[in-house]
Fold:
Amino acid sequence: MVLGFMAMFMSGCKKDSSSTPSSYFTCKIDGTAFSATNLLNCSISQGNAMVNGSTATSFVYFWLPDVATKKAGTYTLDEIVFRYSPSFAADNFEITSGSVVVTSYNSSTSTLTGTFSGKVENSTGATKTITEGKFSVHLNTAQ
Structure:
């Protein structure tokens, strides 16, 4: 199931080949710094955005509905898909509380910027707290 999810997810994203220093995806997971080393350009498809920050072994991912229409604003628990995986083969942690705040959606530069935080839980009941999340990513527009 995780592999199917990742295949679907990765098909909408490309590795960021730009050297723009403003591209970043960082947070703390239970107080430990997470900084994406494989920052991905993610897609806006039918107005929805897929945003991911990953390392060689883990990822934080969220899906935001209607970002092309709503642009800046707060996306709450009942609107978003938000996942954390400590390893690509491990059980995903899914959001139980939290939000993503889009502070800027610039369609002319295809840049999405914002913050995120929340609590996530996996199928065994283990929890993680994600704090100080910040991102600025380039988005590809898919038809």
Remarks:
- The two ends are 26 Å apart (CA to CA).
- Helices lie at 2-11, 67-70.
- The first strand starts at residue 14 and ends at 15.
- DSSP finds two helices and eleven strands in the chain.
